[in-house]
Design goal:
heterodimer, A: 583 residues, Alpha-Beta Plaits, 3 domains, four-stranded parallel β-sheet, 17 strands, B: alpha+beta, Glutaredoxin, 7 helices, elongated, binds iron/sulfur cluster, binds FE2/S2 (inorganic) cluster
Amino acid sequence: MSTVHMKINGTPVEVSSEMTLLQAAKTVNVNIPTLCYHPDLPAWAACGICVVKLENSPKMVRACATPVAEGMSIITHDPELHQIRKTVLELILSTHPNSCLTCGRNGSCELQRLAGEFGIREQPYEIRLKDLPKDESTPSIVLNPEKCINCGRCAQVCQEVQGVWALEFVGRGEHTIIAPAANLLLDDSPCIKCGQCSAHCPVGAIFEKDQTRNFLNAVNDTTKKVIVQIAPAVRVAIGEGFDADPGCVCTGKTYAALRRLGADVVFDTNFAADLTIMEEGSELVQRLTQGSGPLPQITSCCPAWTDYMEKYAPDMIPHFSTAKSPMMMQGALTKTYYAEKAKIDPKDIFSVAIMPCTAKKYEITRDDNMFASGQQDVDLVLTTRELIRLIKASGIDFVNLPDEKADSPIGMYAGAGTLFGNTGGVMEAAIRTAYTLVTGENMKDVNVTAVRGMEGVKRGSVDFNGTEVKVAVAHGMGNVTELIEEVRQAREQNLPIPYHFIEVMACRGGCIAGGGQPYATTDEVRLQRISGLYADDERSTIRCSHENPEIQTLYKDYLGAPLSEKSHHLLHTTYQERKLYKK
Amino acid sequence: MSVKNDTIEFPDELLAFIRVWKEKPGNLIMVLHKVQEEYGYIPREAADRVSELLEVPLAKIYGVITFYHFFKLTKPGKYNMQVCLGTACYLKGGDTLLEELENLLGIKTNEVTDDGLYSIEAVRCVGCCGLAPVLVVGEEVFGKVTKDQLPGIISKFKK
Ligand code: SF4
Ligand code: SF4
Ligand code: SF4
Ligand code: FES
C-alpha cells in the first residue's frame, strides 16, 4: 500500500494514497460534514457541503470526491467554510418542506441533524417547494418527491448496487425528480421492493410503509389472538434503536417487548428457518442424487430476489428451490399445526412478522400460495424500524427488560436457523444438514468458513465424504448477474454445471442490512451485526436444523417427512415469469 | 429475456442505424435523435424497443429524454404553437403569450389538445429577435404578437 504525506489543519499525516480527503480527515479525528455522500456508494459530489480549502490555492474542493495527493495541505474548518456550509444548508432548506414533526425521519434525518448542528434559525432564501404527489403504489415503500434533496443515493443504490434501475433522475434543473421511467408508479416499474433506497435516503423522501397502527388495532381487538414471529436479523439490530451496539443479540428482550405490546404468542422465524433447511436441503439432495430438478439449486427465501428473477431472469425459475421463505412457512404453520394444537380457529389468529425487510410486506400477498392455511398466512409485516417506534411509543424500557423465551411448539431454533440473517448463512445451514442427509453422519466441524465474509460473490466447495459439492453465494442484487451468466453459459455450451447450490440475498451483507433495518448501516455495522449472528450460532447447544427437537416433533406428529404431500401444500410455492414493466 | 409489453416495429433504416451505433460511446443520444426524426417524438413503445436493442435500462433512457429539451415525450399537435422564450422575446413578454395560449387552448406547455389539433411548446431563440415576441406555427412566423392577436392566430389553423 503506497502512502502520501499531507497536512490536515496544519497536522502532518501519512495516509494511504487510495483515500479521499474525507477518509484522510477521519484518521486524525476530523469529521467533515457530508450529506449526499454515503460510504456504501461512489461519491457523487452533488451537495457541496463537504467543501474544504486547499492551502496556497484559491480553490475549494469536495472532500468526499477528492483523492489525497502527496504534499497536499487542507483546511477543513474555519469561519468562512462554516458560513459556506450554512449557506448550502439554507439553500437546500429553501426547497425542502418544514414538516419535520410529521415526517417519518423525524429524529433520524441527516438534513435535520445538520440544520441543528449549524444552528439554522431562519430561512433567508425564497421558499420554493415542489408540489408533487406521493407514490404509495407498492406495499413496501412510499416515495415522497417533495422531500427529495436530489442527493442521488437512492438512484445509485438501485442502479449500481441492486442493478434494478427502477429509479432515475427525471427532468432537469430545479424540476429534477427521482422517479421511475415513463411517468410510471413504482409498482409498475421493475422495483423489487428491497427498500435499499429507503435505507440510504438521508431524508424522508423514501421510507417504509408504516403499518404500526394495524398492529395496535389487532392487539386491541379482543376477538383476535395476535401471534408474532421475529426474523433472524432483527435480534442483532433492534438494540441500535436503544443505543446498544450493532450486533448485540437481543432475542429475549424482543420476545419480552412483544408480549408487553400485547402479543398473545411469540414464535421465532428461526424455527421456520430450520424447517426451510429440512425442505430445501432435502430438495437439494433429491436433485443431487435423483436428478429431480436442474442444478444448481438456487435459494428462494428472499422475496426481492425472487421478484428480480421473475422479471430479469425467468429462465432460472426451474433452478429455484420451491421451498417458501421461513416467514411464510412460519405463518402457514401458525394457522394450521399450531391452531389445531391450541384449538384456535385460524380465522381468529392475526399473524404478524417482524422483519428486517420491506420486500416482506409485498411477499405476504404475492400469490395464492401465501394463503396455504385457507387464510392469509401472514397478516402483517412490520420492519425492525417500525417495531422500535412501537416499543418507544409504548413506554417500554427495552434495554432493562428481562430476557424471555419464545413459545412452543414452533419457537425453538438451532444455530443454523439464526444464520439465515446474513450472507452465506443459508448456505452454511443447508450444508450442515445436507451433509448429514447424504452421508448419514454429522459434519465434524460445522463452521463453513468458505461462504462467510463480505465478498460480493463467494465461491467454495465442500467435501461430502468424497463427493465435491460446489457452492456460490451472492449478495447485493447486482452481484447475482455474474452467477446467472455462468449458469447460462454452461447450459448453452453444454459444459459441466459450475455449481450445485447457489444462495442469493438482495441486500448487501444479507438481511442484517435489509431495507427495514435501523438507519446508518455501513459495512462496519454490517460486520458487527453478522458477528452477532455467528455468536448466537456458536452459543447454541444445537447447531444443525435437523437436530432441533421441535422440528423433529413437527415431522413426527404432523408433516410426516420433508417433501411430503402436506409439506408441499403448506411449505412450497411456485414462480412465474413477470413483466419488467407492468405498464 | 423477460415478458414484453406491446412493441413497435422500427423501419429497416432505423434498425441498421442502431446496429452501426450499438457499440459506440454516446450512442443513446444519437439513436434517440433518429427515433424522434422518425416519429416526431419518442413514443413509449419506441423507448422500450431502444432499451432492448441497445441493452440500456428504460429508466436511463427517460433520464436522457427528460434532461434534454430537444426530446419530446408526446406527439405534438397538428399545429405546434412554438412560443419563443429567448432573451429578447422573454423581455418583450413571451412568457405572458405562453400563459395566454395555455388559457385559450386549455392545455399546458408540452400538452396536446384532446382533438390532437394544437400543442404548445416553449422554444429557445428562433433568430427573429427584431420581431420579438415571436410565435411560430409550422412554417409561419408571427412577430410582435400581442395577447389580443392570439385568438385570431389560433382560428387560422382550424383543420
Ligand atoms: S425498493 Fe429496491 S428496487 Fe425498488 S426503487 Fe428502492 S432500491 Fe430500487
Ligand atoms: S429520494 Fe432521498 S436518496 Fe433519493 S435523491 Fe432524493 S433525497 Fe436522495
Ligand atoms: S436480503 Fe433479506 S432483507 Fe434484503 S430483501 Fe432479501 S429477504 Fe429482505
Ligand atoms: S457530501 Fe461531498 S458533495 Fe455532498
